[in-house]
Design brief:
4-stranded antiparallel β-sheet, Immunoglobulin-like, membrane, mainly beta, single chain, 2 domains, 176 residues
């Protein structure tokens, strides 16, 4: 989320026309078209954050600036040449890194939270296993995962929480 993403079309010689057909999970479809004979582009229902880029090292491609959850979905590029039509399909999934935190609750129990991540983070404790898990889904498509350690070993002074997520992992220790 927040980064730019570049999706490349198949590289073919003698291109007549290129079309991106975009079907987001949320909202309506959009399309971008380019005709080489007239050097014109056409945009139908696409946001201004989606634009053509033409680079020699990449060929024709679609750039999505500041990707958000709303851009998740299927992206199909169709290239029309005298030799036929060629397609490339992408399924764009947006990762939202959670905001991790570790604190002691009012009862002196360690609480580890991974707030507003997508997909939901996995939360675990090192050397401890007695914990409760709460999961809260948000309208934005993100999920908060909260783990509360319910019983600690009496000989352990620091407790370590580990948050696993495709966008990056995190760990921290606390003594309550």
């Amino acid at each position: 989320v927040g980064d730019s993403s570049v999706l490349a079309c198949p590289r073919k010689p003698n291109i007549n026309m290129l079309t991106w057909k975009i079907s987001p999970k949320v909202g309506g479809r959009c399309s971008l078209g380019y005709r080489t004979d007239t050097n014109t582009t056409d945009r139908t229902n696409c946001s201004d954050s989606m634009n053509w880029i033409f680079r020699p090292d990449l060929g024709p491609a679609l750039e999505i600036q500041q990707v958000g959850i709303a851009q998740e979905g299927n992206y199909i590029c169709e290239v029309v040449t005298p030799d036929g039509n060629f397609h490339r399909t992408y399924h764009l999934t947006v990762l939202v890194p959670p905001r991790p935190s570790l604190y002691c609750d009012e009862h002196g129990h360690p609480v580890c939270e991974a707030a507003a991540g997508k997909p939901p983070a996995q939360v675990s404790w090192l050397l401890e296993s007695n914990s409760s898990l709460e999961v809260e889904s948000h309208d934005s498509g993100t999920v908060t995962v909260l783990s509360r350690l319910t019983a600690c070993s009496t000989n352990v002074t620091d407790t370590t929480c580990v948050v696993f997520h495709p966008a990056g992992n995190w760990s921290e220790s606390i003594a309550c």
